[in-house]
Amino acid sequence: MARPQVITKDMLLKYGVNFVQKYGFKNISSRKVANEFGISTQPIYNCFKNMADYKEEIVDYIYNNIFDKELKKKYNENPIINDSIAFVRFGEKNPKLYLAMFIEGTSNNRKVFLDDLDNYHRMINDYPKYRDVTNDFIENIHMKSWIITNGLVASSLSGLRKYSNEELTIMFEEMIRITFENPNHIKLDK
Questions:
Q1: 133 part of a folded domain
Q2: Domain membership of residue 176 as a residue range
Q3: Cα–Cα–Cα angle for 180, 182, 185, nearest 5°?
Q4: Looking at the domain assignment, is residue 13 inside a domain?
Q5: Residue 84: exposed, middle, or buried by beta-carbon count in 10 A (0-12, 13-18, 19+)?
Q6: What is the pLDDT of residue 105?
Q7: Mean pLDDT for each consecutive 10-residue tract of the chain (190 residues)?
Q8: DSSP string for residues in 22-77
Q9: Would residue 1 count as lying in a domain?
Q10: Cα 102 versus chain centre, distance
Q11: In the prediction, which pLDDT does 136 show?
Q12: pTM
């Protein structure tokens, strides 16, 4: 008699990511994932409290294992520009994962935003040119970058326009320049 396959939490997260890449986040359910990968729904509910918990952990997995790899690629020496270009490129390469992380409304969307803000604090404080900037400046530049990068990804995914790294660099250099000249802070509703 064949030994039954042990389905781990990591396997279920990878199944979830693969499902999202193929069908999108809005279509995910335990039954659909189980059918897609030839398993029962029981392992999902053994490993996760409920479907909302499973979805949140899928988004965390995408952020920590796929999105983070794109952020480590080198597009520009300036960390603000590099991070912003990496964000755009991630969205273009992984449209369904981008939608899952930033658009389709899990409770993790705010967590992803705040994790990215923490990352901004670290990378800006490590960059000599920005060592003396205030926390307000970092929050302001992060918010502006977040808005612009999401708009650029939307423009690219809709087929309206794709941008070269050089064009993106020019846009983000301009954003940084304007923020230094007019540091009015865009308040984050915490």
A1: yes
A2: 9-181
A3: 95
A4: yes
A5: buried
A6: 59
A7: 76 95 90 94 94 90 86 92 95 89 71 86 91 89 93 95 97 94 69
A8: HH-GGG--HHHHHHHHT--SHHHHHHSSSHHHHHHHHHHHHIIIIIHHHHTS-S-S
A9: no
A10: 6
A11: 87
A12: 0.84
